[in-house]
User: What shape does this take?
Amino acid sequence: MSRKKPAKGKAGSSTPTASPNSKESCRSAKGAAASGQTNGVIHPSRPSLSNSGEFYDLAFKVMLVGDSGVGKTCLLVRFKDGAFLAGSFISTVGIDFRNKVLSIDGVKVKLQIWDTAGQERFRSVTHAYYRDAHALLLLYDVANKASFDNIQAWLTEVHEFAQKDVVLMLLGNKADAAHERVVKREEGEKLARDFGVPFMETSAKSGLNVELAFTAVAKELKYRVLKEPSEKFQLQEYVNKEMKGVGCCRT
Ligand SMILES: Nc1nc2c(ncn2[C@@H]2O[C@H](COP(=O)(O)OP(=O)(O)OP(=O)(O)O)[C@@H](O)[C@H]2O)c(=O)[nH]1
Ligand SMILES: [Mg+2]
Assistant: This one.
């Protein structure tokens, strides 16, 4: 069985060169060493080796998008390192990525997760990356109404620049911030229903639903590539079954 080791470095030739952060409040950018050589899906009969030394069967690109300050970088750091490093907010510059290999129903799925800058001045940089994304996590901040109101504009952008069959999920982040909350969960649910996208609330601070958001996307992507005739997977159904509410648990 052939096993290839992707070259180290920045994004592969099919994607523009990344512009790494030097520092962030969530320190996510540190390193970002893994390769972006594989633009498409890797065939499962040829396992590959990630930079962290883990073999994987499938690889996908996931992009985090949304207004500046909604918590994209913190969400990625929480997922990758299980940490929330509170401190002064240092906005992401350009774009960066980190890899994580998940085991999904016995299949090793590598997610290459791109953390984009929410600031308007970096918009043209992020546009260039949409086309290669297999999945997009679109975030707003439940404590910031403007970030919620801007979701429609983000969706317009997604439809303009991303692949038609991209896997989309809407996340209402900072669900821990009860006192500052200005967007009700029901409002997020309605918006998601109106646009036909799966939805859940998350918290990079508490970790609420963070693992689930990425796992659900990985499951959907894996299902699309490897689906058995007997297998059925529905992303929103899975999310509804698995997600935890704020301060309570759904069964
Ligand atoms: N309470 C709370 N604060 C959060 C959460 N996630 C992020 N924050 C805070 O929100 C601020 C912005 O977080 P970032 O993750 O840097 O935001 P971003 O979306 O990456 O912003 P840009 O890089 O400018 O696009 C930081 O001060 C974080 O500490 C969360 O789940 N709960
Ligand atoms: Mg950021």
Q: What stands out?
A: Residues 241 and 251 are 7 Å apart (CA to CA).
